Amino acid sequence: MEAFLSNIDRVVDGFSWTVRLTLFSALFSFILGILLTAMRVSPVPLLRGLSTTYVEGVRNTPLTLVLLFCGLGLNSALGLSLADSVALDVFWWGVIGLSAYTACFVSESLRSGINTIPLGQVEAARSLGLTFTQNLRLIVIPQALRTVVGPLGSVLIALTKNTTVASVAGLGVQEASREMKLMFDQGVAPVLPTFVGFAIGFLILTLPMGYFFGWLSKRVAVVR
Amino acid sequence: MSAQTVLFDVPGPRARVRNTLYTVLTVFLALIGTAVLYLGFNRTLSERESPLFSAQTWAVNPQGQWAADKWEPFLRPDTWTGYVIPGLQNTLTAALTASVLAVVFGLVFGVGRLSEHWWIRVPSGAIVEFFRGIPLLMLIFFTMALPIVAWQLFDIPTGTFQVSALVAVVTGLTLYNGSVLAEVFRAGINAVPPGQGEAAQSIGMTRTQTLWTILIPQAVTSMMPAIVAQLVVLLKDSALGYIIAFPELLRSFTLIATRESNVIPAAIICALIYIVINVSLSRVAIWLERRNSGRGRSSARPAAANGAPAPVREGAGGLPTPSGTAAEPGVGDTATESRTEEEPGDGDDPGPGKGPGGSGT
């Protein structure tokens, strides 16, 4: 355990990338998810079709492939660079891949939330003369968000764990699981304590998140 | 609520004009996006000097990703027999093995968590929470490193045994998805109406008999959609084997991509194969869900838990899992349609538990 603790700075460094990946991806996937949901329920058939195709396509593709496509396809083959340093460049491509993937799940949660809103709410809004956008922004989304706090929390937890896939070849963000693998391979510390240490790190991130969202979903639940 | 028909009125003349405008705008943006991708993958980095509006820029570049040469490998039988099919076999082997083991793991620990002995309940809970809370990839890495652990802890020489990539993938998939399934089973068993268990005990069945002959069959039936949805996640997660060089489907395609330098065609076809398999599996989940909800007075329905006559299709009282299926395999239009027939606002409560993708990658 001492050998592991003496490398604690590497662990903290790995988790700092994990946390940054999670935060930025959560932000972007949330925005994109709301956009996709709005498209999904919009009056324009083309937008609905696009959103459905995107969500169903990306949701059923393995995340490894999505991130590999970002790393090997867009970053290397297309030659799109997002930052000067390699570490930041792959980081942002990781964020893009994770956001593109997670947005599908955000959108699916939100859509199931929209389905829980009583018909009368929307009918009342329409009879007041609210437009589609106003209806969505003022009536539907706020209520839908409250009912899907729980599922969105699960999505965030899954995202936190999914950031480990950003260590995939062709991308290689130096996040926690990659740091752990490197420490295994370099033999700087015994494997078991290293594994347990990193596992505790992830539990520190995910368990409170689970309890927080469980509490929050009860707190903001809509009583009907 | 049927979002599609209720959120907006039947478009009048102005709305129709506006919608057409949005459609045109979307088509325009989509065309720009497509053009950027087309051009980006058409020319290699060194060839990107020619002006935007010239025939040379837009013509299919024989070196680019859209050239017929780059797609041609997928028309040759040897690509399929030599790479794709063996990869698919490995993916399916790993996924099937892990599915069976995960269901067993899930049953054991899901039931374990409900045990009345604390010395079974507490460890079961700890194991489930642990494997659910850490990333699958870490489990796979750790399993790969087991020979080193054996050497460091018990002085077993490193050559004594080896962990193959298949074993590592299957172990990881089993532990992670098994833990998620344990929660599914637990929720399912809890959702069986208490009268079922009470009746079984009153005719003299033991607790174990009650569990295995009365509660679990009903729980499994009602949870079938959630179970299938988790198996889709498992299949998708098997692609993580790529990272530890397990020769599965994704790895086959990267090998093809390296050999033929056709990253983009390979990625597209690989994604299509995964999508076809997963969408078919999701359809099975929806079919099961429909079939279940069509059952007459089956007590297996989670909704009956609160004693209501159960107009609610999934999950009364915020049950952890069944609602996960609402969002998870709820593929496209079929799910939406089935929803429109429901009474507004009487259910579909997306419970707090394993929401969409509350699991897996």
UniProtKB/TrEMBL annotation, chain A:
The alphabetized UniProt keywords are: Amino-acid transport, Cell membrane, Membrane, Transmembrane, Transmembrane helix, Transport
Q: Please name the CDD domains in this protein's record.
A: TM_PBP2
Q: Which domain of life is it from?
A: Bacteria
Against Gene3D superfamilies, the record matches this protein to: MetI-like
- Xref: SUPFAM superfamilies: MetI-like (SSF161098)
Which subcellular locations apply to this protein? Cell membrane
ABC transmembrane type-1 domain ranges (all copies): 15-213
InterPro entries (UniProt xref): AA_ABC_transptr_permease_3TM, ArtM/GltK/GlnP/TcyL/YhdX-like, MetI-like, MetI-like_sf
Ranges annotated as spanning the membrane: 21-42, 62-83, 90-110, 191-216
Q: Is Plastid tagged as a keyword?
A: no
Is the Cell membrane keyword given for this protein?
A: yes
Q: How does it sit in the membrane?
A: Multi-pass membrane protein
Family of this protein: Belongs to the binding-protein-dependent transport system permease family. HisMQ subfamily.
Which PANTHER family does UniProt cross-reference here? AMINO-ACID ABC TRANSPORTER PERMEASE PROTEIN YHDX-RELATED, MEMBRANE COMPONENT OF AMINO ACID ABC TRANSPORTER
Q: What is this protein called?
A: Glutamate transport system permease protein
Q: Which organism is it from?
A: Nocardiopsis terrae
TrEMBL record, chain B:
Q: Transmembrane segments in this chain: where? A: 21-41, 92-112, 133-154, 211-232, 263-288
Under which name does UniProt file this protein?
A: Glutamate transport system permease protein
Q: Which PANTHER family match?
A: AMINO ACID ABC TRANSPORTER PERMEASE, MEMBRANE COMPONENT OF AMINO ACID ABC TRANSPORTER
Q: Where in the cell is it found?
A: Cell membrane
Q: Which InterPro entries match?
A: AA_ABC_transptr_permease_3TM, ArtM/GltK/GlnP/TcyL/YhdX-like, MetI-like, MetI-like_sf
Query: What are the entry keywords?
Result: Cell membrane, Membrane, Transmembrane, Transmembrane helix, Transport
Q: Where is the ABC transmembrane type-1 domain?
A: 88-285
Q: Which SUPFAM superfamilies does its entry note? A: MetI-like
Query: Is Heme one of the keywords UniProt gives this record?
Result: no
Identify its membrane topology class: Multi-pass membrane protein
At the top level of its lineage, which domain of life is listed?
A: Bacteria
The UniProt similarity line reads: Belongs to the binding-protein-dependent transport system permease family.
Compositionally biased intervals (Gly residues): 350-361
Low complexity composition-biased segments: 295-311
Q: Does the keyword Transmembrane apply?
A: yes
Q: Which CDD domains match?
A: TM_PBP2
Organism of derivation: Nocardiopsis terrae
| Region Disordered, residue ranges | 295-361
Instruction: Give the Gene3D superfamilies listed for this entry.
Output: MetI-like
